[in-house]
Design goal:
With about 525 residues, this protein is of the alpha/beta class. It is built from 16 helices and 21 strands. The structure holds alpha-D-glucopyranose and calcium ion.
Amino acid sequence: MGRWWQGAVGYEIYPRSFADANDDGIGDLAGITERLPYLEWLGVDAIWIAPFYDSPGYDHGYDVADYKAVNTIHGDLEDFSALVAEAHSRAIKVIVDIVPNHSSSHHVWFQEALKGRDNPYRDYYIWRDPALDGGPPNNWVSHFGGPAWTFDEASGQYWCHLFLPEQPDLNWTNPAVRDEFDGILRFWCDHGADGFRIDVAHGVMKDPQFRDNPQRAAITDPEDPSDVFNAFDHLYDLDQDATIEVYQRWNKVVAPYDAVLIGESNPRTIDRVAGYVREGSLHTVFYLEPAWMVWEPSALLERLEAVDISAETGVSWVIDNHDTSRSPTRFGGGDRGRHRSLAVFSFMAALGGFPFLWEGQELGLVNAEIQAIDLEDPISTRNAHGKGRDGTRSVMPWDDSHANGFCAGATPWLHAPDRMASETVAGQENTENSWLLKHRRLLLLRKTLPDLWETAAVWSDQLDGPAKALRRGDVIAIANFGDSPVAFDLPDGHWNLRFDSRFAATGSAHIGRVEVPAERTYLLSLVS
Ligand code: GLC
Ligand code: CA
């Protein structure tokens, strides 16, 4: 029997920015509930909601102060139950975001741990003595700038944080931490969650000896956290083999609920992606490289093929999320970037797995221009030149009323210029060939072509470089991301063009050879 996520398409919601029901400028759970009819119409099978738990908000919710409480800015547990009930009545599953790598420094566990070396909660976190010179115990750096260690004067030890100092890393070698999270998983499943997106899934285990990471490149901009971070080979702070055991345990915890485990992972090599979805561990894993790449057709296709072959249906495919620049912007901007974005996502829809849209991706949104004074992301506000993530996080444009219909009269939490009417849901839902209608067609079509996820892929050797093709049963997907047309020799039979990433007009029959124009994806099915 298939699992519910086979053939499903997910949709990521950033709760702050999606819909604000009580008009205080911050999105909330009730706002999501009100917009579920839209998501059902779009053809979404599951929503992933970024963290909405009690949090001081240093990283906008990815710093959790209580894993079992809803942040009052987003509502309460009753709102969550109402959301789940409404989603389920529309056959939409609800995936919540769980943050096991670190808690907030405001969490009672960390507040206790700070009380001293003998406190029972001390060992919930990672403490090390200073190096001989009194500095941090090793050379690990925070994703958000500076060392991954902060000194606690009172105890004379450093705590580890792969992100902000206010996000202390939990100690996953401690059985008590493992027990706590078993309880947290069950808590949300008991409240109706259908699965978990696991934040920094690859980070929970650390090298037992806390060795220095080898440096592989010079640091060119010490004020840019990603430049510093990428100068190191993360051999010892991330992606440790022992991580798999944590999720084998989780897999058993969630099995009675038929809940899905989707890891946010950033493995060192493509070969390691499949490791996370080995039997009995995670169900799928986000393969994030395409969400960070600029327009590099050959490199992108080469990686998609390699990951698809090694991890088969265990991948969650994405080109957009709340951490990256929006894909139409990264892929060249304007309509060209939008066409490219849809061409890539259409091909991802043919890669088995569990693809995810990011809110607004279906509208072809480009990044919002945020003024320096309005920046909210700690990557920007805590570093002199940090390239932050606010450009992708501006509010969802529903229509061309106040704040694009996100809230009634309040000022949205993140200040950004309003979007044009043509960029909004209302401006696209009845407009022929709009980005929204094309994305919707893709999602609906995918449901009618189960070969796209039920049947194993055979990659064709006819095309290579910036164009590739694969066959799954009676469906062929051809991606031509190059700047000139390519011809593809079809197997025997009549092949119907079911989806063209650029134009709605499809349905033409092809025999023998099909020509795919530049920067386009075609999905064809065999006429029986
Ligand atoms: C993940 C999240 C990101 C967050 C970080 C720390 O990468 O996607 O938004 O800042 O983890 O929790
Ligand atoms: Ca609100």
